[in-house]
Design a protein that fits this description.
Strands 1-3-2 form a three-stranded antiparallel sheet. Helix 1 (3-21) packs antiparallel against helix 4 (80-100), helix 6 packs antiparallel against helix 7 and helix 13 runs parallel beside helix 14. The protein has one domain (3-403). The chain contains 16 helices and three strands. It has 404 residues and is an all-alpha fold. The two termini are 25 Å apart. A hairpin with a 4-residue loop joins strand 2 (241-245) and strand 3 (250-254).
């Protein structure tokens, strides 16, 4: 049996297993789909208001597309949940085909294995969230940046209009791709089309509502920056606690200084992204090729969005997949060890949510320790990525055709 056939069999088994596991695990790892996405879609169909158009929404406007596609498919598969899992699997399959190709590249095979193991390690929360739609778009976009920069940028821009995080990959592409006008023009065209449609249907006031919704959030319990107040709550300090925000539907931490830190985190994130971007620009100006700079810059920016974010939702771990897939395709020897750490962080994330989430919220030190270890691994991966970016050698181990 060929490597390609084995990979596709593994693809099917992993997606079926993770999809089914969502129905078996505690703490509703599929909750966003049937408790939030489906009601939003039903409201839109019933004419009771369209999120992102008639009111502010936590997501960019294009996120409506997968929500509505799942609604259309739901009668075919018997439920919105199953339809969502099928939709995610189909989009994953399209990007997986781009990655695997004919199955002859060892780097691509390793990257494909990493992706599948990551899906299994992270579990259902990685499938039953909007992020699951953006990851395959990001993977395909990153793989096509050299050979089809306009198409790649269009995919990354579309993904950004579903969840904001792929903007980090677009930024890395603008810095590193020589045909950057094609990247900028294509991304701008997609953005103009999305914005134009929303404005045309009367949603101009709410087009960027997701930006303001994010900045008003508190410190989510899973975020790395929340560790201080989480451990104070675990230790029983009466001035610190974990509480549920009914408006944002998330568990957050409170305590001395938490509002100040929460208010500052957006500025910290922006400043950190700016610094790393400048480093990337400097490396490009010194003649370091795309094949070296892009994976390190993309990984650094994506990990910054996770580590300095005051929202630490478990599905954010899926953002790691795209830059690490590209890194493994181009230089598997250098990227394999950190990729293994990424897999461990994904497994710890599933352990924390949904398996131990009740224990975490109840102040269990073992669950808090697992979360803290996960966050420490993410910080270590961020440091590794930035160091790799700073010390990027001129020569690329992989030839240009590795991304063709």
């Amino acid at each position: 049996m060929s490597k390609r056939a084995v990979l596709w069999i593994a693809f099917v088994l992993v997606h079926v297993a993770v999809g089914v596991l969502g129905f078996l695990q505690p703490n509703q790892p599929m909750g966003d789909v049937n408790l939030v996405y489906e009601p939003w879609a039903n409201r839109a169909v019933a004419g009771a208001g369209v999120v992102g158009v008639t009111e502010n929404w936590v997501y960019p406007a294009l996120a409506l597309v997968p929500l509505m596609l799942a609604h259309v498919l739901a009668p075919v598969f018997g439920s919105y949940l199953v339809a969502w899992a099928v939709l995610v699997t189909v989009v994953d399959a399209a990007a997986f085909r781009v990655l695997v190709g004919r199955g002859r590249s060892q780097g691509r095979v390793v990257a494909a294995v990493f992706w599948l193991v990551f899906i299994a390690a992270l579990g259902p929360v990685g499938m039953y969230r909007l992020d699951a739609i953006t990851v395959p778009l990001a993977v395909a976009g990153c793989l096509w940046l050299l050979t089809r920069p306009a198409v790649a940028a269009a995919l990354l821009a579309a993904a950004t209009w579903i969840k904001v995080w792929p903007a980090a990959l677009l930024l890395a592409a603008v810095v590193t791709v020589r045909r950057r006008l094609a990247v900028i023009g294509s991304a701008a065209a997609v953005s103009a089309i999305v914005a134009g449609i929303i404005v045309a249907v009367g949603g101009a006031r709410h087009l960027f509502g997701f930006v303001f919704d994010q900045t008003e959030r508190g410190l989510q319990v899973e975020a790395p920056v929340s560790a201080y107040w989480l451990w104070r709550a675990v230790a029983g300090f009466p001035d610190s606690r974990v509480y549920y925000d009914d408006d944002l539907l998330t568990w957050q931490v409170s305590g001395p200084g938490a509002p100040v830190v929460g208010g500052a985190m957006t500025a910290v994130l922006v400043a950190a992204v700016a610094v790393v971007t400048v480093i990337g620009v400097t490396r490009v100006r010194r003649g370091i090729p795309f094949l070296r700079v892009f994976p390190a810059l993309a990984s650094s920016l994506v990990l910054l969005l996770i580590v300095t974010n005051k929202v630490g939702s478990p599905q954010y771990l899926t953002w790691i997949i795209a830059p690490f897939v590209v890194g493994l395709v181009l230089d598997r020897e250098r990227w394999w060890s950190p990729a293994c750490l990424a897999l461990v962080s994904a497994a710890l994330t599933q352990l924390v949510y949904p398996i131990w989430y009740g224990r975490l919220l109840g102040g269990d030190p073992l669950a808090a320790g697992a979360l803290t270890l996960r966050n420490a691994l993410l910080i270590a991966l961020l440091v590794w990525s930035v160091v790799l970016l700073v010390r990027t050698p001129r020569a690329a181990r992989a030839p240009v055709h590795a991304l063709i």
